[in-house]
Specification:
It comes from Adhaeribacter rhizoryzae. Residues 1-142 form the UspA domain. Belongs to the universal stress protein A family. The protein is of the alpha/beta class and 294 residues long. It is 39% helix and 22% strand. The protein folds into 2 domains: 1-42 and 52-147, Rossmann fold, CATH 3.40.50.620; 148-273, Rossmann fold, CATH 3.40.50. Strands 5-2-1-6-7-12-11-8-9-10 form a 10-stranded mixed beta sheet, with helices on both faces. It has a two-stranded antiparallel sheet with strand order 3-4.
Length: 294
């Protein structure tokens, strides 16, 4: 893990996510990027709305706020921490994946806030929307959660799909932190085994021979109750999920279990995308190659 991106709207929840991300950056010797997007000013005219050009003075104002925030982070966490600031015009979510590609971001950290929809109640409108379209892992930090030693990360698996791609992302996140990974599965009485559980486990062990994962299976018809039980009994620090089908998150964060969500909202969630981008390997310039041969 080399680069962590944190979008901010300068809210309390965003500040909390920045502090969490800064702690991870220091622990993993990663670069931190702070990004703020200036929402376009839409001027309504009858039958002809248009977007007003962003005032350069406004860009300068927010860039100055980001610079001051970067100074504060270095002062609080580590004077040697590399912090880059970026201020861009446009909708909040639009530049995120572009920055993931251009800056070769390994992790996006976002704060959460309340809203009205199923997933939004936990992660906030922007975070929920970005998780669905992200090309890198997204760590959602609930309001008030502070960074501590991340001892155990739980990965909720369905033991039916291809897990290698998701576990590669999870291992890349967990190893620099020294965190263990607990893979668990919630199985209902009526669930059909399209693929043998033992077959999935053998493949995971074969693909990750150096990783000492723990494996658990919980018999529970209610997936929410099963997750809650596992998180509580095993003192999980982060819950990881694969974002491979839209209704998976909706099943987990359904409104009917709002009381349980109050508990889970205190646990950061790591969303692993189904189609993560590939980091481009930097190539040496002709000048560098020439210098090396002399």
């Amino acid at each position: 893990m080399k680069t962590i991106l944190v979008p901010t709207d300068f809210s309390t929840n965003a500040a909390n996510a920045i502090n969490y991300a800064a702690g991870i950056a220091v622990s993993t010797n990663s670069k931190l990027i702070l990004m703020h997007a200036i929402e376009p000013d839409v001027v309504e005219f009858p039958g002809n709305p248009f977007i007003r050009r962003t005032d350069n003075r406004l860009v300068a104002y927010y860039q100055d706020k980001l610079q001051n925030l970067a100074k504060y982070i270095r002062l609080r966490f580590d004077s040697n921490l590399e912090v880059e600031t970026i201020c861009v015009p446009g909708p909040f979510l639009k530049p995120l994946n572009d920055l993931v590609y251009s800056k070769q971001v390994d992790l996006v950290v976002m704060g959460t806030k309340g809203a009205h929809d199923w997933l939004d109640k936990i992660f906030g409108t922007n975070t929920a929307s970005f998780i669905k379209q992200a090309v890198s892992p997204v760590l959602a930090i609930p309001s008030g959660v502070q960074l501590k030693f991340i001892k155990t990360i739980a990965y909720a698996s369905n033991f039916e799909s291809q897990e290698t791609m998701y576990l590669k992302q999870l291992v890349k996140f967990a190893e620099p932190l020294g965190s263990s990974i607990a893979i668990f599965n919630i199985k209902s009485e009526n669930q059909l085994d399209l693929v043998s559980d033992q077959q999935i486990l053998r493949k995971i062990k074969r693909d990750f021979p150096e990783n000492n994962f723990s494996f658990s299976q919980i018999k529970e018809n209610d997936i929410i109750a099963g997750i809650e039980t596992f998180v509580r009994e095993n003192q999980i620090d982060i819950l990881a999920l694969s974002v491979y089908e839209p209704d998976m998150l909706e099943r987990i964060f359904h409104n009917s279990v709002s009381e349980q969500l109050v508990y889970r909202s205190q646990i950061p969630l790591l969303a692993l995308p189904s189609k993560p981008y590939s980091v481009k390997k930097t190539t040496k310039s002709k000048q560098q190659k020439s210098q090396e041969t002399h």
